[in-house]
Every structure is written in structure tokens, then in C-alpha cells.
Design brief:
about 35% helix; ten-stranded mixed sheet; globular; Rossmann fold
């Protein structure tokens, strides 16, 4: 399976996206992370398409061929900006209500969509990131070294001059059990060649830690999201036990932020469970998106399920 990409214009972007599966199937927006591309979803999207679902897989702002329409638009990497982009894409496609699957940056965006526009989102599946996260442990702070590195001139220089080498190093660190192929990395790394990738990346991480000004365009959304409003959209979180980027422990104990929630931890999977354990992720996502509970096998998965009314 390969993706056929097309493009459309929203208020700020020309978004390139793949639209796969039956057009009358239930729509699922699949959002990739950093540093990655829509190709990360190949195995999972194929399973959803075979089950009769329509999958829409965009390049996020700053990635691949997606482009800003105007030179003077702020190259914001705020999660609220990504969420607005996703809603405008759905609007342009005439999709009123849909489910969302997101990994890494895409997971943060999925949470923002579910929290800020629950009337639009039927079901949510997130990978590798908890909603809001817990307290920043010493171990998690250590894993976030790259985010603070990017706040320095040296980190910015590394992204300018050796972004592929740095990102390959991060992939290796984040998924210690995954001997990924050069092709898998190259399929995603081409997305880093976008002329706005650097600016969006730097703003995303600097803004996250209070080191860059927010884009005023998203002020109202930022104020609504700041206090982590409870998510009423049924949400499944899939986390790799060996995630070397977002530690699995960081997504523990977040049940009170949802009305219906399941958390599944995959043994020996790292930060990219959609690649490392594609069959398991596809089965879990399909079961959840189809309206049932996650297909949990207790001898294979660890799970937390504590919904509240």
C-alpha cells in the first residue's frame, strides 16, 4: 500500500494529505508526530481501510509539501494551531464529525480537538503521550533534553546543519528495541525538508516551555486549553513500555481527566508503536473506533481502565 497525496487550501495553509478507503466510510483523521510524516500510519491505515473506514492523513504544518499561503503568517507550532488546521481540513473536505488518531504531536493535537471541539469528535486514539502528562519527573526531564537543546544556538545549528542525523539519533534513543530500516526513516525524513520545518519546530518547543511568544491568533483557544478541560470523547491511549521519549510512567494516573478512557501499555514497544507493534495497534484502534472497548488480551497488554461519571 502507498499513499496518493492531494492538496487543498485552508485559511492559512495549502495542506497535502492522503484520503484513503471508501468515501462513504466513517472518517478517521490520522495525525503524525515529530519528526515524522503520514507514512508512519501505513500499516494501521491499511487495516482501517480494509475494515471500511476512510482515513485522512495530512502533513502537519511545517512538514513535507504542506505550505503556508502567506510569508507573514507566524510559523507557530502551538498545539492549538495544529488543532485549528485539523478542523479547517475537515471543514474543507465537508466532514462534520469524525474520529481522530494521533501520535506524539498528533496525540497532543487529538487531545486538543477532543477537549475544545467535542461535538466534532466521535472517538479518539492517542499514541505515546498522555493528556497533560503528570508531574515532570527527573527521568522525564532527562528524556526531554532535546527540547531544551533546541532553545540554544547550538541546538538550532544542529537542526539547520544535521537535522537528519539528529532525528535518526532520536529515533534510536526513543525506540531501543526497534531496528528500523533506512527506508522507514527516509520515508519520514523527507518531511523535514519543508522550508518552514525549522521555524515550526523551534517555536513548538520554545513556546511549550515559555521561551517564545504565542501567536495571538490562538489566544482564545490557548486560554480554554490551559486548564486541561475534561475530555468527554471516548479515548484510548496506547503507550510503549520502552518509550525513550515520553516515559510510560508519565501517562499513568490521568483517568480523572476523561469520562471514558482506557490506557494500554505495549511491552517492549518504544515511542513508535504504530510501527513497532503495528498489528496490535491496528487491532486496538479498530476495536475502539468501531465503538467497542479496546481488544485487550491481559497476557499481552497491561491496561488501566477507570472511567468516571
Amino acid at each position: 500500500m502507498s499513499f496518493d497525496f492531494q492538496s487543498l487550501r485552508t485559511s492559512l495553509l495549502e495542506i497535502h494529505y492522503a484520503d484513503q478507503g471508501p468515501r462513504d466510510g466513517w472518517p478517521v483523521l490520522m495525525l503524525h508526530g515529530w519528526p515524522d510524516s503520514p507514512h508512519t500510519w501505513l500499516p494501521v491505515a491499511q487495516a482501517l481501510n480494509h475494515a471500511g473506514m476512510r482515513t485522512v492523513l495530512p502533513y502537519l504544518r511545517g512538514f513535507g509539501p504542506t505550505r503556508f499561503l502567506a510569508r507573514d503568517t507566524a510559523r507557530s507550532g502551538q498545539v492549538t494551531a495544529l488543532a485549528r488546521d485539523a478542523l479547517e481540513l475537515a471543514d474543507a473536505l465537508g466532514i462534520e464529525r469524525f474520529s481522530v488518531v494521533g501520535h506524539d504531536w498528533g496525540a497532543r493535537t487529538a487531545y486538543a480537538l477532543a477537549a475544545l471541539a467535542p461535538q466534532r469528535i466521535a472517538r479518539c486514539v492517542t499514541l505515546s503521550v498522555g493528556y497533560g502528562g503528570g508531574a515532570l519527573s527527573h527521568g522525564q526531564a532527562q528524556q526531554f533534553w532535546y527540547q531544551w537543546y533546541f532553545a540554544t544556538p547550538q541546538g538550532e545549528s544542529a537542526l539547520v546543519h544535521d537535522r537528519r542525523g539528529l532525528c535518526r539519533h532520536l529515533w534510536q534513543q526513543w525506540a531501543p528495541y526497534w531496528a528500523f530500516s533506512g527506508q522507514a526513516f527516509d520515508d519520514s525524513a523527507h518531511a523535514l525538508d519543508n522550508p518552514d520545518w525549522l521555524a515550526v519546530t523551534l517555536h513548538a518547543y520554545r513556546h511549550r516551555w515559555g521561551l517564545a511568544e504565542a501567536d495571538p491568533r490562538y489566544e482564545e483557544l490557548e486560554s480554554r486549553l490551559a486548564h486541561l478541560p475534561p475530555i468527554r470523547v471516548p479515548t484510548l491511549l496506547i503507550h510503549g513500555e520502552a518509550d525513550g521519549c515520553i516515559l510510560a510512567q508519565s501517562s499513568e494516573g490521568l483517568e480523572q481527566r476523561f469520562t471514558r478512557y482506557e490506557r494500554v501499555v505495549l511491552p517492549k514497544a518504544g515511542h513508535f508503536p504504530q510501527w513497532e507493534a503495528a498489528d496490535k495497534v491496528a487491532a486496538l484502534a479498530l476495536g475502539w473506533l468501531a465503538g467497542g472497548d479496546a481488544a485487550i488480551e491481559k497476557d499481552v497488554f497491561q491496561t488501566t481502565k477507570e472511567p468516571f461519571a
